[in-house]
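tool=predict chain=A
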Amino acid sequence: MQDGRWQVYLSGEIHTNWREQIAEGAGARDLPVAFTSAVTVHEDSDDCGVRILGEEADGFWKDHKGAKVNAIRTRTLLEQADVVVVRFGDKYRQWNAAFDAGFAAALGKPIITLRDDALTHPMKEVDAAALAVATTPDQVVRILDYVIAGRLG
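tool=predict ok
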């Protein structure tokens, strides 16, 4: 916790507005929360390594550079987080989100997974590491309200 504000890291899919829904819900409840996440502009995340460190002819090395630059942000923010919310959508494979969940678990961070019921089986190992499994952003907000402010409602 920094300056009385809970640090909540939002990991996972970037194609829906779930992050905004959680931030708006937390704001409406006046929760002392600061949200962080990976860079959510897909092209920037993919290209940061070569745009900063130089072009690569081989796609492997392009991705390698980008992954390492992105890891500076991700690892630092995960280490600083009080709670980690990991969203899994059904449209794309979110290997990065699974990695973030594993890293957060290794750090002993409380994890809330956010996913559709259709992902119950493929998410069983990640859900086993989570302290809560939510299916809507509103449930995440309600969990945060309870654990931060002690309000049930």
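Helices lie at 18-28, 42-53, 59-80, 95-106, 124-129, 137-149. The two ends are 24 Å apart (CA to CA).
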